Amino acid sequence: MFALINFSYLAAAVCFILGIKGMTRPSTAVRGNQIAAVGMLIAVVAALLHQQIVSYPTIIAGMLVGGTIGVWLAKRIAMTQMPELVASLNGIGGAASVTVAASTWLIALTADNLGTTGWAVAILVSIVIGSVTLAGSLVAVLKLHGSIGDSAKNRTWQLVALTTLVAVIVGGGLFVNGTGAQPLVLAALVGLCLLMGVALVQPIGGADMPVVVALLNAYSGLAGAATGFVLDNQGLIITGSLVGASGLILTAVMCKAMNRSLPNVLFGGVFGQAGSGSQARDEGDFYAGKVKYATADELALLLDSARKVVMVPGYGLAVAQAQHAVKELASQLESRGASVSYAIHPVAGRMPGHMNVLLAEAEIPYHQLKDMDAINPELPQADVAIVLGANDVVNPAAAEEPSSPIYGMPILDVHKARTVVVVKRSLSPGFAGIPNSLFIKDNSLMVKGDAKDVLQATTRAMKDL
Amino acid sequence: MEMFVLSFTIFILALFVGVELINKVPPTLHTPLMSGTNAISGIVVVGAIISAGSAGVSPTVAAVLGFVAVTLASINIVAGFLVTDRMLNMFKRKV
């Protein structure tokens, strides 16, 4: 029986690997996800067969409650809120690892059957990574949601993080060597790690949340792998490391797209803040009289003669829920024989692939979505590039001004298009907190307003032409 | 200790498999990839089930924690797979 159960876990892990393999192509991805779900079912059934289990009501109750909440979340969430959902699920995954480790340890303590030092280390690692993931994700969700802004007390938070880290190392040492193997010590460790999670994420700016979400995704996987060590369950270890690897790769992709190192994103908050304060004051001078404004009607006239149009979506598109309005305008343009493509910067939006999901929701064919390397050589031939709520990722300063804080960050070269139209609610700076020299270029026009309203007005105006 | 060495070997090898596999996922699918990995990280439900089910021989705190663990892991599994499916179907619609 024991062997059968363990083989089932292996089968589940193989299903997960095949599932992720399916995700390498949009056409096979749905099937991949289903294979992974089947793997999960196998694992759950195998777990229920464990001979250690004496009662089922608690298990069934938990599954019903969790399942209902899960269905409710998955049905009701808007595509624009995906970053918040993924961040929440990261946190819940971390919390699950903590509770499993704590519960397993308490059961072993009561049975007077505490394992080896290695086992205690695995418990400790589950608790530490899981709690940090939980608290960090909570802060990330609130920041993504806009409920909390960026803190001005970054140094204080970093001091808190350092202090709690020392305390966790001391407490963890006592816990592992047996002298501190008491429920109270465990509870204190959880508390300290939660505080550490908050202190680690709080100083990181809202613009860097995509990196944090990807990293916490990796942590939630590693917490799961640690739980695998606690339970001596290799299926869990394999799955946890798959998720960990996924999160780490996405973290690396995002860092590369911002031309920053991971330590700079995680601990560079202090310096970033000092820079933005001084620049904010120069902003009025920077733009004074140099920005040319246009209306939606003028934009419609401009588009009427355009053959090649490139849309550049950013976070503003998600905020305005303008994905369907983009599609409408694009259909209008296409019916007039223009070609429309979409330029997607790797860090556009608030998480990897965020823009792609929104545009897919509006039924925009994904072969029209071009990533940065594919679209940049085409942009000089574009008649019109429409920037929809993107800012820092189209700032030419990143390529032209070595003094700029974002210098070196790869950008979409929209300023090379014949005309650039920026649809934006105000001249406020992007998350990097710096003015955008794109807005004062000779070939750029600004249409002030909410992306959705502007796009709809433009589509109407085009129909009337 | 031998068990640990074995487990650790598997852990490292699986990390490499993960890196190779996930490098092939196109950026377009990165958001569904994240929610999908959220779902499969719900595999800790296995540990949760065992803790919650052994509650008969353990203190109340452990039983409560076991229940919480099953609930949390189930949220991840159900919400993760369903929302990933919802997203991926959008990609499938127009090929």
From TrEMBL, chain A:
Signal peptide region: none
Catalytic activities: NAD(+) + NADPH + H(+)(in) = NADH + NADP(+) + H(+)(out)
InterPro entries with a match to the protein in the record: DHS-like_NAD/FAD-binding_dom, NADH_DH_b, PNTB-like
EC number of the protein: 7.1.1.1
Every NADP transhydrogenase beta-like domain range: 6-458
Pfam families: PNTB
Keyword Lipid metabolism assigned: no
Transmembrane stretches, start-end: 6-23, 35-53, 59-78, 85-107, 119-144, 156-175, 181-201, 213-231, 237-255
GO cellular-component term (any): plasma membrane
EC supergroup of this enzyme: translocase
Domain of life: Bacteria
Function, in words: The transhydrogenation between NADH and NADP is coupled to respiration and ATP hydrolysis and functions as a proton pump across the membrane.
Name of the protein described by the UniProt record: NAD(P) transhydrogenase subunit beta
Lineage of producing organism: Bacteria, Pseudomonadati, Pseudomonadota, Gammaproteobacteria, Pseudomonadales
From TrEMBL, chain B:
InterPro entries listed in its UniProt record: NADP_transhyd_a_C
Bilayer topology annotation: Multi-pass membrane protein
UniProt keyword annotation of NADP present: yes
Gene Ontology terms: biological process: NADPH regeneration
Enzyme type, top EC level: translocase
Subcellular location(s) per record: Cell inner membrane
Keywords, alphabetical: Cell inner membrane, Cell membrane, Membrane, NAD, NADP, Translocase, Transmembrane, Transmembrane helix
One CC-aspect GO term: plasma membrane
PANTHER family, per database record: NAD(P) TRANSHYDROGENASE (PTHR10160), PROTON-TRANSLOCATING NAD(P)(+) TRANSHYDROGENASE (PTHR10160:SF19)
Primary location group: membrane
Gene Ontology MF terms: NADP binding; proton-translocating NAD(P)+ transhydrogenase activity
Record-listed E.C. numbers: 7.1.1.1
Transmembrane segments: 6-23, 35-55, 61-84
Keyword Membrane: yes
Function: The transhydrogenation between NADH and NADP is coupled to respiration and ATP hydrolysis and functions as a proton pump across the membrane.
Sequence ranges assigned to domain NAD(P) transhydrogenase alpha subunit C-terminal in this UniProt record: 8-93
Superkingdom of source: Bacteria
Substrates-to-products reaction catalysed: NAD(+) + NADPH + H(+)(in) = NADH + NADP(+) + H(+)(out)
Protein's name in the database: proton-translocating NAD(P)(+) transhydrogenase
